């Protein structure tokens, strides 16, 4: 949990105001304001049958996610192309706190997890949280992790005498949840337990590398940690947490946790629903009422073409955010045609375009829609170029 005395924020409201401003720059919108659609009777009965099974929670942070997953499942029916959303909920720590959640729904691409970590890192950095450590694990799909869970169960049986009597019954029914508890308690057997990443298939390893490559291109440092785990009823594939050093105790405290929660989102939806999240926890102190910024809409759209360009999108967006230059983007779209159609709907007078050639040369095309003229601009000169030519500044009269 983020302690405000370790940040530059005087109150919870200050922290949330800053977090919302950063999230909404990247295109996140309030989840509670999104339009939902009810299931028809046949689909309602089908999902009700799936939901009769009790969910096994391995971490306390997982319980609030159920409500968000249900809400996101209802929103995706009205937004089948996917969406980015944020919400605030009461925290799950022992002391009064609030959690700022970010959700990316509707894409299997690793850009979802990468975007969440980039935004969460920006929020923590702007708050003044120092010495941040990003830890990442991958538990694979439900099928590929079966061997992992089986071997965890065997490992726990060998060490059952060292486990607390109150936890022993759970070891037989929920080996993974038991291992999470042992990790949280600092049990000496936990570090030697089987590691989920060793059980990934080749295809899952390639997808995991795609995720890590986004972070490496962005320059976000991370470490692989087999001890970042969660319930398989909630999570699949990537899991991550951000921690910082507790100046009083000298130990680490977790300030954010999340991952890909396809199993939980799909439980409440008619079809398979890909979804990823991160939750940043902050203590409650002082004012809590948040005032959101009211701005115009960006006059510029950022389109990418190909995987190389897509890996560099987050670098460019963060550079523009730091320079307070607004821009639309559609990271959930893979095809350039979808993005150009979106730019047309938004009627932006300028479009930034990055393809393979531009990604390799560290340049970007700035196109004026009215004349269809364009100019290649080096990335490190882009903010200055846009400001000098007043390209894509806020268009007055609309609200973000």
Automatic annotation (TrEMBL):
It comes from the Bacteria. One of its GO terms (molecular function) is histidine-tRNA ligase activity. GO terms for biological process: histidyl-tRNA aminoacylation. Gene3D superfamilies: Anticodon-binding domain (3.40.50.800), Bira Bifunctional Protein, Domain 2 (3.30.930.10). GO terms for cellular component: cytoplasm. Residues 310-388 form the Anticodon-binding domain. Keywords: Aminoacyl-tRNA synthetase, Ligase. Pfam families: HGTP_anticodon. Belongs to the class-II aminoacyl-tRNA synthetase family. This is Histidyl-tRNA synthetase. It comes from Candidatus Kaiserbacteria bacterium RIFCSPHIGHO2_02_FULL_55_25.
């Amino acid at each position: 949990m983020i302690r405000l005395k370790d940040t530059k924020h005087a109150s919870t409201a200050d922290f949330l105001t800053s977090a919302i401003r950063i999230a909404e720059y990247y295109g996140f919108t309030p989840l509670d304001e999104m339009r939902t659609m009810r299931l028809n009777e046949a689909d309602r009965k089908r999902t009700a049958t799936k939901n009769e099974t009790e969910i096994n929670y391995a971490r306390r942070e997982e319980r609030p996610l159920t409500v968000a997953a249900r809400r996101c499942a209802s929103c995706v029916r009205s937004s089948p192309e996917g969406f980015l959303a944020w919400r605030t909920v009461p925290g799950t720590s022992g002391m009064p706190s609030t959690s700022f959640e970010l959700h990316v729904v509707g894409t299997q691409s690793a850009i979802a997890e990468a975007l969440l970590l980039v935004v969460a890192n920006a929020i923590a950095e702007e708050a003044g949280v120092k010495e941040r450590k990003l830890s990442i694990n991958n538990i694979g799909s439900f099928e590929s992790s079966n061997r992992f869970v089986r071997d965890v169960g065997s490992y726990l049986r060998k060490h059952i005498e060292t486990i607390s009597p109150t936890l022993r019954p759970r070891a037989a029914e929920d080996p993974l949840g038991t291992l999470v508890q042992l990790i949280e308690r600092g049990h000496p057997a936990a570090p030697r337990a089987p590691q989920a990443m060793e059980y990934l298939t080749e295809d899952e390893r390639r997808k995991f590398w795609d995720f890590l490559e986004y972070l490496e291109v962005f320059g976000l440092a991370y470490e692989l940690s087999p001890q970042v785990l969660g319930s398989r009823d909630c999570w699949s594939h990537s899991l991550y947490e951000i921690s910082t050093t507790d100046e009083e105790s000298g130990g680490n405290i977790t300030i954010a946790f999340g991952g890909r929660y396809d199993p939980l989102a799909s439980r409440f939806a008619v079809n398979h629903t890909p979804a990823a999240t991160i939750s940043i926890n902050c203590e409650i102190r002082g004012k809590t009422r948040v005032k959101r910024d009211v701005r115009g809409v960006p006059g510029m759209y950022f389109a990418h073409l190909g995987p190389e360009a897509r890996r560099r999108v987050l670098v460019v967006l963060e550079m523009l955010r730091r320079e307070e230059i607004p821009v639309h983007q559609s990271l959930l779209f893979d095809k350039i045609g979808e993005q150009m159609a979106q730019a047309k709907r938004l009627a932006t007078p300028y479009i930034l375009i990055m393809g393979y050639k531009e990604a390799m040369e560290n340049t970007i095309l700035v196109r004026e829609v009215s004349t269809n003229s364009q100019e290649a601009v080096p990335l490190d000169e882009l903010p200055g170029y846009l400001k000098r030519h007043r390209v894509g500044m806020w268009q007055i009269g609309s609200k973000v």
